[in-house]
Amino acid sequence: MKNDIVIPIGKSILQHGYFNNRIYLIKIHPDDIDQVIQRISYLQSVYNYSKIFIKIPETLETYFKTSDTIEEARIPGFYQGTIDALFLSRFFDPERSQDDASDQIRKNLLLLQERASSPTGVIKPETMVIRKATAEDISHICSLYQRVFETYPFPIHEPYYIKTILNDGVQFFVGVVSDGIIAAGSCEIDSFASSVEMSDLAVDSAFKGLGISKHLLSFMEQQMREERVRTAFTICRAEPLPVNRLFSGSCYQFGGTLIRNTNICGNFESMNIW
């Protein structure tokens, strides 16, 4: 199946397509409100997607909210540390708004209120080097993502895509041992909001349980502090406990659950905001 299309609308960014069967407003600029609303309406009338999912400042809610709009999540102070980000959704298929994993997701969130568990092992600092990725790393990063993710909402397994977003300013970081790259993650900065999405975290299955994700995330956070970004967040799979424990244990606040939001690891899964 073809990847979804990412299109700029003025200073705003929108993704749509049948791979995720949705319209996703990734970024909105106040200058583009009318254009964006018209484009979303047109795309939905043509393609009849099962979900529309938008991320906007709370100050723009009245422009986008309809009678069937649901607020699925919120990030306090997302925009310049003062204005909340809202994650608003509309469902056009009743099955899309229901998740059989909801009970497990709720149980996981209750577990996360307890003390975070320690890694089952420890990787020695001298064994792995964490550094910023370069163009020479692209094929190895893609190979890692191909091994870890059966499907993913963006084509991160394709070298052309990683090269494109690297050139557009997305920063990738990698964990490297003697055998090569065993972990990767990305930081996508929204300078207008002074926020950054901590994303695309993956660790080779042969190195699970060694605390590598924690080391990598901490390194990424330090780099973002040096960039003077105010707010860091993530959109991660809601059902697996380890990734949610990683962000909960790193002092991220739970913002909400996006129901069956993303085609990832072979299924349409719900995603948590931290």
Describe this structure in words.
With 274 residues, the chain is an alpha+beta fold. The protein folds into 2 domains: 93 residues, Gcn5-related N-acetyltransferase (GNAT) (Aminopeptidase), CATH 3.40.630.30; 145 residues, Aminopeptidase (3-Layer(aba) Sandwich), CATH 3.40.630.30. The chain has 7 helices and 14 strands. The strands form 3 sheets. It has a 6-stranded mixed β-sheet with strand order 1-2-3-4-6-5, with helices on one face. β2 and β3 form a beta hairpin. The radius of gyration is 18 Å and the shape is globular.
State the main characteristics.
globular; six-stranded mixed β-sheet; alpha+beta; Aminopeptidase; 274 residues; 2 domains; five-stranded mixed β-sheet
**Portion of residues within helices:** 25-40%
Total of domains: 2
**Largest sheet, if any?**
6 strands, mixed
What's the name of the CATH homologous superfamily of the largest domain? Gcn5-related N-acetyltransferase (GNAT)
Query: Strand sequence of the main sheet, in spatial order?
Result: 1-2-3-4-6-5
CATH class of the largest domain: Alpha Beta
> Strand share of the residues?
35-45%
Strands, count: 14
Order of SSEs: EEEHEHEEHEHHEEEHEEHEE
* Overall pLDDT score: 94
Poorly predicted runs of 5 or more residues: none
Query: What structural class do helix, strand and pairing data support?
Result: alpha+beta
Oligomer: single chain
Rg, Cα atoms, Å = 18 Å
Total helices: the number is: 7
The CATH architecture name of the largest domain reads 3-Layer(aba) Sandwich
Spatial gap, N to C terminus? 30 Å
**CATH fold title of the largest domain:** Aminopeptidase
What would you call the shape? globular
